[in-house]
């Protein structure tokens, strides 16, 4: 009985990592938040996952290409803007 | 000179400068977010045209740069909305499919899937490197996972907005973003530990 109850309350890593995505948007119930916190307190792999996923999320905002706007397109846009303006 | 003339003067003088100042920036922002040079070029061009047409709407309450970026971001979202409506049912695989076995039957990390230590620090060179890796890895995501990931983490929309844009259900969204996050972390790790 006690074992079943524990099993019911405990998350596995699959469930925990899903809840982390929901947590980012504050979409977790109190129960889920407690379950996730419990899981994380015991699972170093999921702690790593959370930390690294957070880093990826933060750095994703700053992703940009190195290439510049192609010169011929620049010229084309310049012409169009001039025409439109006159 | 009253306010109106000043405004007029500024606006009249600016569009050519937009291209000089922000052309490359807008393009460099767009390219990783649409993964297609031609599309990126079109969107940047359309952004300038829309900006010019709407120049009288520009109230100067945000910087010109932010204003142009706001126009561009709308165009990027429109691009994904259009893409989603074109794809229809055809290329919408069941996201529940367990093609990637991240976890074992008990739901614990699979043997070769366990997160490793990255030993990252916060210095700018490392951050740039990570950003480059993210850019590569997100190109490797499956179509819909990729769209969800880009809209969530590069474009910073929330799940409700993304569901509307891509016309997917919330439960579908969470499966996709979960998969995308697993895939991205794994891919970034492989590149990072190799470099």
**CATH-level-4 superfamily name of the largest domain in chain B:** RNA polymerase sigma factor, region 2, helix turn helix motif
By CATH reckoning, the class of the largest domain in chain B would read Mainly Alpha
Overall spatial form of chain A: rod-shaped
Gross geometry of chain B: globular
Helix content of chain B: 55-70%
Rounded radius of gyration of chain B (Å) = 21 Å
Task: Please trace the helix and strand order of chain A, writing H or E for each element.
Answer: HHHHH
CATH topology of the largest domain in chain B: Rna Polymerase Sigma Factor, Chain: A
Mean pLDDT of chain B: 87
End-to-end separation of chain B in angstroms reads 59 Å
Q: Which range best describes the helical content of chain A: under 10%, 10-25%, 25-40%, 40-55%, 55-70% or over 70%?
A: over 70%
* Largest sheet properties of chain A: none
Strand content of chain A: under 5%
DSSP helix count of chain A?
A: 5
Question: How is the main sheet of chain B built?
Answer: none
Give the oligomer, counting copies of the same chain as homo and different chains as hetero.
Answer: heterodimer
Give the number of domains of chain A. Answer: 1
Cα(first) to Cα(last) distance of chain A is 81 Å
Query: What is the number of helices of chain B?
Result: 8
């Amino acid at each position: 009985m006690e074992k079943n109850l524990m099993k019911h309350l405990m998350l596995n890593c699959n469930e925990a990592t899903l809840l982390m995505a929901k947590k980012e948007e504050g979409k977790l119930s109190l129960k889920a938040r407690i379950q996730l916190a419990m899981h994380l307190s015991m699972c170093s792999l999921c702690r790593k996952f959370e930390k690294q996923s957070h880093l990826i999320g933060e750095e994703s905002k700053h992703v940009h290409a190195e290439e510049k706007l192609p010169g011929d397109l620049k010229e084309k846009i310049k012409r169009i803007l001039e025409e439109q303006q006159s | 000179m009253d306010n109106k003339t000043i405004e007029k003067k500024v606006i009249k003088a600016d569009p050519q400068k937009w291209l000089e100042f922000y052309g490359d920036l807008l393009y460099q922002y767009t390219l990783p977010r649409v993964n297609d040079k031609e599309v990126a070029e079109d969107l940047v061009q359309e952004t300038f045209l829309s900006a010019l047409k709407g120049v009288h709407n520009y109230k100067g309450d945000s910087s010109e740069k932010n204003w142009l970026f706001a126009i561009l971001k709308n165009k990027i979202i429109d691009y994904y909305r259009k893409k989603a409506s074109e794809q229809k049912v055809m290329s919408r695989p069941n996201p529940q499919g367990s093609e990637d076995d991240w976890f074992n039957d008990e739901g614990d990390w699979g043997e070769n899937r366990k997160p490793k230590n990255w030993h990252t620090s916060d210095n700018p060179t490392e951050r740039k490197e990570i950003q480059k890796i993210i850019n590569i890895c997100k190109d490797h995501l499956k179509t819909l996972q990729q769209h969800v990931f880009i809209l969530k983490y590069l474009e910073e929309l929330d799940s409700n907005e993304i569901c509307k844009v891509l016309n997917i259900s919330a439960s579908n969204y969470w499966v996709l973003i979960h998969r995308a996050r697993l895939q991205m972390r794994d891919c970034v790790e492989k590149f990072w530990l190799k470099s």
